[in-house]
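Regression test case RT-17, inverse folding.

Input:
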């Protein structure tokens, strides 16, 4: 055992130093910056396009005075529903042939009218691609009711005292923290565990793995590579987290105080996040290493790892069911299942106080980490040098048949 641990430490130190102190590691650290920038740019463009698309245009055939009252009522409704899409009203004068005008407006391209409103105050009629109980019809009912009401003085100013957070807002904010924690844990594990495969395939193709296997136990290669990439991943996460917190402190008006505190507090939450990432990474990384040992080409790696990646996506979807209901039967079942337990428990840390469930969960996950590491190391030992003997046996059998 002592020799195994010492050999694993030598392999791990070799891989860690070769990865962290390389020029490629700098580009690896800068890698997440580009998706974030693209997401911010295209997200803003998409939000603007969606906002414009969600604002249907209704043609109103009315006199200027009547339309002014309707437009004022529409503005009051828009002020009350600031973040909701409100219909846009465009006025047209009435023609002698009302049916022909209505058909022309519904077929027009600029503006693209979704419906036509006539007789706004007497007997309102709405014609177009709308439903009687749809959002457009309901909004027009409120707007016409406000326009019909007699003009009154503006309502009194309400003295608002902002207390920061209430119990209701804190629950919603902690649910957002839980979702963000789950997504980051899932995304980083998938992203960083996949690096094991490319590194292993490179060393197998260069015959480096055979040189290492001749010098140290194969189990030590498995453990050393796994824990080296775990340490490398933690270094990358530390750099990204520091950059993210610095960006929040600089760009946000309230600084770090604007971040909703998790139920267990930030120090415990960050500590649990590192522990759960380590557990999730060791579980998934051992599976990826076992797959990489059985593959000899990049195509084989992609074929074999696809079911594992898809399974992890399904596990992530199941883990999201625990958000908002961590003590439900589905939440408890997902917390017990070892592959989804880290994702569920990081969400629980954001929503509920108390550390003893996490101590139990970490102990339970550690048992499964040991079991899966032992199983993965055996598969790795059997298959890492399997290709040579397999080919010789195949050729020998062909020769015997001949």
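Golden output:
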């Amino acid at each position: 055992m002592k020799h195994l641990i010492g050999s694993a430490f030598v392999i791990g130190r070799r891989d860690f130093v070769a990865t962290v102190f390389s020029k490629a590691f700098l580009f690896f650290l800068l890698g997440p910056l580009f998706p974030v920038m693209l997401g911010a740019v295209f997200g803003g463009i998409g939000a603007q396009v969606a906002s414009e698309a969600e604002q249907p245009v209704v043609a109103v055939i009315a006199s200027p005075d009547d339309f002014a009252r309707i437009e004022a009522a529409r503005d009051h409704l828009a002020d009350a529903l600031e973040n909701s899409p409100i219909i846009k009203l465009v006025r047209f004068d009435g023609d002698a042939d009302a049916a022909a005008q209505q058909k022309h407006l519904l077929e027009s391209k600029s503006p693209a009218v979704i419906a036509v409103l006539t007789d706004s105050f007497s007997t309102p009629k709405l014609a177009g691609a709308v439903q009687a109980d749809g959002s457009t019809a309901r909004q027009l009912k409120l707007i016409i009711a406000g326009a019909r009401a007699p003009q009154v003085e503006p309502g009194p100013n309400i003295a608002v005292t902002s207390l920061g957070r209430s119990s209701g807002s804190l629950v919603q904010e902690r649910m957002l923290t839980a979702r963000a924690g789950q997504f980051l844990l899932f995304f980083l594990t998938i992203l960083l565990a996949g690096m094991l495969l490319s590194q292993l395939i490179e060393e197998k193709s260069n015959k480096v793995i055979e040189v290492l296997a001749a010098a140290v136990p194969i189990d030590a290669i498995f453990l050393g590579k796994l824990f080296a990439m775990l340490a490398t991943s933690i270094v990358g996460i530390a750099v990204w987290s520091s950059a993210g917190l610095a960006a929040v402190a600089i760009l946000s008006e309230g600084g770090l105080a604007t971040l909703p505190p998790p139920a267990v507090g930030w120090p415990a939450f960050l500590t649990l996040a590192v522990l759960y990432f380590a557990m999730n990474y060791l579980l998934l990384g051992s599976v990826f290493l076992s797959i990489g040992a059985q593959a000899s080409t990049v195509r084989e790696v992609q074929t074999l790892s696809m079911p594992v990646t898809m399974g992890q996506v399904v596990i992530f979807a199941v883990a999201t069911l625990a958000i908002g209901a961590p003590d439900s039967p589905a939440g408890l079942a997902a917390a017990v299942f070892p592959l989804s337990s880290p994702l569920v428990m990081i969400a629980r840390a954001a929503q509920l106080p108390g550390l003893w469930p996490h101590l139990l969960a970490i102990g339970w996950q550690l048992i499964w980490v040991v079991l899966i590491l032992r199983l993965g190391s055996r598969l790795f030992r059997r298959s890492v040098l399997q290709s040579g003997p397999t080919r010789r046996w195949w050729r020998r059998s062909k020769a015997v048949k001949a």
